[in-house]
Amino acid sequence: MGLAKLKTQTNFTPEEYLAFERESDSRHEFIDGEIYAMAGEILSHSRICINLSGEARLKLKGKSCEALSANMKVRTTTASLFSYPDLTIVCGEPSFHDLKKDVLTNPKVIFEVLSPSTADYDRATKFLRYRMGNETLTDYILIAQDYCFVEHFSKQPDGNWLYQSLSEISDVLRIDSIDCELSVTEIYDRVELKSFDDIEVEEK
Predict the structure, then answer these.
(1) Whether 4 contacts 36, CB under 8 Å
(2) Full set of structural domains in the chain with CATH
(3) How many other CB atoms are found less than 10 A from the CB of residue 161?
(4) CA 166, CA 169: separation in Å to the nearest integer?
(5) Is residue 203 scored above 60 in pLDDT?
(6) Angstrom distance (rounded) from CA 136 to CA 11
(7) CB–CB of 17/108 below 8 Å?
(8) Distance from first CA to last CA of the chain, Å, rounded?
(9) What are the pLDDT digits (tens) for 135-153?
(10) Helix (H) or strand (E) holding 182
């Protein structure tokens, strides 16, 4: 899913963004005063999102944590970023930006499915805002949409973030903070995956 900057104005306030977004027929993200339109998703991206949602809901059923869809906005504490994660896990009572309850402020786990056009943005710019602006966030998980590769950033007791990656379809993604395991096989169910060699050839 790509992003395209709106050039009609710069330096929007968070309040201006929300007023615009709540009247819009399409979704937009907000970062540092700029508004970006979100493009559509390809089949593999859609399948992964559905697989994630289904698996997370099943594994969290009866627990204090729950999965929220890609239509739930998430805000950083500083309000420098309003985004639509592909899947968000919240634990306990959800906290919201205002009474409309459409902007979550206490995410526990965030999943982003990477597309070629947003991979660098999700991995660097967005993650920096998330980890600096959400004290409740303990896990940030990136999932490649074209080949089997899952990156898991988990917050440690000392405040540092541990990086782990999974690249085998038989792997299991363990998220200790919510006592949950997700099968990589299920995450990529029905997805036609490329090999790493295919990706390297395309990049050349």
Answers:
(1) yes
(2) 42-203 (3.90.1570.10)
(3) 15
(4) 8
(5) no
(6) 27
(7) no
(8) 23
(9) 999 999 999 999 999 999 9
(10) strand 180-183
